[in-house]
Write a structure and sequence with these properties.
The chain is of the alpha+beta class. The chain has helices at residues 2-11, 20-26, 37-43, 93-109, 126-138, 160-163, 166-177, 188-202, 210-217, 263-276, 297-305; strands spanning 14-18, 49-56, 60-69, 72-75, 85-86, 114-118, 142-153, 181-185, 222-228, 233-241, 246-254, 283-288, 290-291, 294-295, 309-319. Strands 1, 2, 3, 4, 5, 6, 7, 8, 9, 10, 11, 12 and 15 form a 13-stranded mixed β-sheet that branches. A two-stranded antiparallel ribbon has the order 13-14. Strand 10 (233-241) and strand 11 form a beta hairpin. The protein is elongated and about 65 Å long.
Length: 320
């Protein structure tokens, strides 16, 4: 009986607050660029306090970073998603449940009013994310948003013409007739200018300033693309390398007056082609097409028309 009790204590999950320097020694491979210390430190001014957590039983299992503001513990506090970063391998679903229970207990002790946890699109790591989502749900978290993310699997590019619809093939022919060209660029100002105009024309929010993009690019590898017709630059894209095998379109768009030249079809096809040739890149994520779970049907249809599939991106909350 003594031995059994000792084993129970040995395998009990615990949560520890650590300093960022210590966290970095434990979490060698953060889940994504959003979960790195450099990214967190760049954005820490957006919250009152940043917390670095380690979850440990018989070994260190997970790392997690959140920010506190107005009594709300946020994962993330300045990105589209956050996730547990695995320290140990082959973590069981019970380890996820124990970690979330510990997080809730810590939050109660620390007078946190609400925990918000925006999880990644499932395709980023279906097993890991599913275990986390189940642990959140079973420990009382409620679903805040059921967002829909779109992504393109780059191994499909060799059959691109056969997986897009008739309208998309027609649009690409029109783009070719207008002599559109693409270039990978370092001109962040021109890329941002087009995106800014596009957002204003469509009445969409633009969360990042040009300086935000430049500063973030020092931490998360970023690529920029410009589309030109015979006269001027008419479309652009800003893309981040979020993990070692996934890149994400943060912003893309075109000048509205050139809609009929179909620069977005041309941009999508050429970006897919570019990344299909890059070693280790498996997916390009186009992001969500929902606002508070409600789909932008036209945007969803467009993303499917250019060959993307979709998967859930779930946001949770717990009022304590």
């Amino acid at each position: 009986r003594c031995s059994c009790k000792k084993n129970k204590e040995l395998y009990k999950m615990n949560i520890f607050e650590v300093k960022k320097e210590e966290y970095k020694t434990f979490v060698v491979n953060p889940f994504s660029g959003f979960d790195t210390i450099d990214f967190i430190e760049l954005n820490k001014h957006k919250v009152r306090d940043v917390k670095y957590f380690i979850f440990e039983n018989n070994k260190k299992r997970f790392g997690l970073v959140g920010g506190i503001k107005d009594g709300i513990l946020k994962f993330p506090f300045s990105a589209t998603f956050s996730c547990l970063s695995e320290i140990a391998h082959n973590n069981k679903i019970s380890h996820y449940h124990d970690a979330i229970k510990n997080l809730i207990d810590w939050s109660k002790f620390s007078n946190i009013k609400t925990i918000r946890f925006n999880t990644p699109p499932v395709f980023y790591n279906s097993s890991h994310i599913t275990k986390l989502q189940n642990a959140l749900f079973c420990n009382g978290f409620k679903l805040l948003d059921y967002d829909v993310n779109f992504q393109f699997k780059l191994e499909q590019y060799d059959n691109y013409d056969s997986i897009i619809n008739t309208d998309s093939r027609r649009n690409l022919k029109i783009a070719a007739k207008n002599n559109l060209t693409i270039e990978k660029s370092d001109d962040v100002s021109k890329v941002y200018e087009i995106i800014k105009i596009n957002r204003e024309e469509k009445n969409f929010p633009l969360w990042m300033s040009e300086n935000d993009i430049i500063n973030t690019a020092n931490i998360i590898k970023s690529d920029y693309f410009l589309i030109k017709n015979e006269n001027e630059y008419i479309a652009s894209a800003y893309i981040q390398h979020i993990t070692k095998n996934i890149v994400n379109v943060v912003y893309w768009g075109n000048l509205q007056k050139y809609d009929k030249q179909y620069p977005m079809n041309f941009l999508a096809k050429n970006i897919f082609e570019y990344y299909s040739k890059q070693k280790n890149i498996e997916y390009i994520s186009i992001g969500t097409s929902t606002l508070d779970s409600n789909p932008n049907f036209g945007l969803c249809d467009f993303k499917e028309s250019i060959g993307c599939n979709c998967c859930p991106k779930l946001n949770f909350y717990l009022d304590i």
